[in-house]
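Thread: guanosine-5'-triphosphate complex, take 2
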Amino acid sequence: MSNTIETTPENFRAGFTSFVGRPNAGKSTLTNAMVGQKVAITSNKPQTTRHTIRGIVHREDSQLILVDTPGLHRPRTLLGQRLNDLVAETLGEVDAVGFCLPANEKIGPGDKFIAQKLGGLPPRTPIIALVTKTDLVNPAQLAEQLLAVTKLGEELLAPKGFAAVVPVSAKDGYQVEEVAKVLAQLMPVSPPLYPDGELTDEPEMKMISELIREAALEGVRDELPHSLAVVVEEMIPREDRPADNPMVDIHVNLYVERPSQKAIVIGKGGTRLRDVGTKARKEIETLLGTKIYLDLHVKVAKEWQRDPKQLGRLGF
Ligand SMILES: Nc1nc2c(ncn2[C@@H]2O[C@H](COP(=O)(O)OP(=O)(O)OP(=O)(O)O)[C@@H](O)[C@H]2O)c(=O)[nH]1
Ligand SMILES: [Mg+2]
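Output below.
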């Protein structure tokens, strides 16, 4: 019988950090890189993340709970408003904030809008700036962006400014560990808040619907990404399968806002939807560690982004 007594070092630090930033700033990609596993889906479409996702970063002397949030922007729909409210709510509850600004894009009104919101946080919440995607710029451009970001902090987060400004690339791993270190130092002294090895508290059904949405986002354009919602209706273990080779039937609805969008998602003769299914199935099988049968249906939920009742039904 093992008889180990769990002990934590006296100076162990643990707490919550929220990543915020404009849509597409690289929050979810950085979250995944720091956790070391995909806990949040990513895409080059804005507003990919639609709920807060906790990714847990375990280190020898710290535990960081990263709260990845939807990109903040001026809302145009009820969904957009709900997402912004969600971020605001999250910000009030964390020990530090990581404000993500891409190295390859000039600071714009969208960033200032966010910086102003951050300026309204309790003064004890440290805010660090993360200059993301450094692999996309040369050293001179990076230096210029670091200066511009520092200046933004001095202007809008006076008198303290940013607690730190850290360049990072989630793509090539540059400084990912440094971000974890800087944030860990800002966490309160506390024992770990999650069991060792737990990387997220995302429910399985949610992860599955997200992997399907990620696959479906690939290759669609214009307003379609915003119009897409995915709901796992049922997961049923298939009967009569050998115990060492189980299979799960997963029934999923993909919602779009208009019949024309339904046609795009399905594709000619159903080819697009089949490709989405194939791609998502592989990822879901890896996640669950069993074979699955994925049954995808596309439905129209008219204007769901603006309709309180439909938003509720879709989980917003
Ligand atoms: N080259 C490069 N691309 C990156 C990096 N980080 C993210 N990206 C890309 O930037 C795009 C947006 O990344 P996400 O992580 O989904 O951005 P996000 O901030 O979570 O976006 P929302 O959830 O929509 O707010 C994707 O196409 C990523 O592959 C990086 O370090 N380098
Ligand atoms: Mg995201």
